[in-house]
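hey can u run this one w/ coenzyme A bound, need the structure tokens asap thx
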Amino acid sequence: MESTGYLLQGPRVAVRRVRRQDYDELTELAQASAEMLRRWLGARDNSPAAFESYLERFEQPTHEGFVICLRGTGAIVGGVNINNVVRGALQSGSLGYTAYASTTGHGYMTQGLQLVLQLAFGQLELHRLEANIQPGNTSSLKLVERLGFRREGYSLAFQYIDGAWRDHERWAITAETVRTAAQSTDFSESRI
Ligand SMILES: CC(C)(COP(=O)(O)OP(=O)(O)OC[C@H]1O[C@@H](n2cnc3c(N)ncnc32)[C@H](O)[C@@H]1OP(=O)(O)O)[C@@H](O)C(=O)NCCC(=O)NCCS
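ok here u go:
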């Protein structure tokens, strides 16, 4: 069990940090999902050099990179980043996440992100997480709503994705909200 590196486990999925050995698996998933990901995340550079700089990002205290894995097989079913962490009076971060063509629509992201929220508001001592989502990205909007995020506002021309500056809805969740939700979801046995 130690070798998995899992930080937290839920009933079906577990969360661990992304690592160099994940390159082949993540590249295969991303290539098979290129069309699904391009519209919402932009075209991806799947080169080894791009993966190296992706990993380097997580050497900074301002970024955290995780993968969501199936507990049974260890197969990666999703990726989650906490970006632009600001400490001090804010204790905030910006959430990025993706599933893949073969892994979407099974509830893995909902459960995996619940675990990431526990990490963020527990071990990482954050207080607020923000997610910026294009208005047409129905799956992503449903996902954050299920997780207890609140819609805070609408940002015009927020991010350059797939050839244009895209408007985004801004959603956020705070530690207090998660603690309230956790009262009805017992993850106590999921900790390693
Ligand atoms: C956004 C994204 C992560 C959402 O992922 P997802 O697969 O919908 O999320 P989940 O894994 O939690 O699956 C939830 C869906 O599985 C369904 N489901 C099927 N079996 C299930 C089960 N056993 N348990 C729970 N849910 C299940 C749910 O009903 C839900 O479907 P619905 O959204 O139609 O109601 C995914 O669509 C994606 O990666 N998109 C491309 C990248 C992207 O947009 N990233 C976010 C940018 S803001």
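The CA atoms of residues 9 and 189 lie 9 Å apart. anyway lmk if its weird
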